Amino acid sequence: MSAPLRLELEFASEGALREFAEEVGGCVGGGEVFALAGPLGAGKTVFAQSLARGAGVPASTPVTSPTFVLHRRYAGRVAIEHLDAYRLRSARDLEALGVGELIEGGGVTVVEWADRVAEVFPAHTVWIELDVTGPCSRRMRVRIPGCARPPGLARLRALGAARAARRGP
Ligand SMILES: Nc1ncnc2c1ncn2[C@@H]1O[C@H](COP(=O)(O)OP(=O)(O)OP(=O)(O)O)[C@@H](O)[C@H]1O
Ligand SMILES: [Mg+2]
Fold first, then answer.
1. Which residue's CA is the nearest one to ligand 1's atom 1?
2. Helix, strand or coil for residue 112?
3. What CATH number does residue 12 fall under?
């Protein structure tokens, strides 16, 4: 167990945020959980789409917001379980969708509006909070826990640390 890594990242464009999310997707190996928070239009779906691309979901597979269907699965190097809690009333509704089994299922779980159902998330969850700072700019607060497993977390901490170092003074 190492220390959790907290980052605050600024993105001046959608392309820059997509590029980072794809790098995040390149780190996953299965078992990771991403809890996404932030207001309408903050970029949660954009992040999930690009993460899925980075995790090997082909460009021919549309990755769309699961607001109405609540859950979609995409096949990449590992399965991507994409959920949206916007329409749920409580964590119990998410549990009824089988989120526990999805998290244990060996794929990567990505949940939009995760703050509405925060109780369901295990300790190894990566929390990502997005804020709108301008028409094309976003702030991202990331918390990567210090857990040893799943191994993708160590790769994510290395990615985050490199990113923080690159920002400079
Ligand atoms: N830097 C940026 N990063 C991400 N999206 C951006 C950025 N700049 C502009 N956008 C636009 O913001 C919108 C983000 O939409 P998205 O559906 O990803 O938000 P969301 O957080 O999933 O919203 P919802 O809560 O409705 O599901 C898109 O229209 C995208 O083109
Ligand atoms: Mg969305």
1. 14
2. strand
3. 3.40.50.300
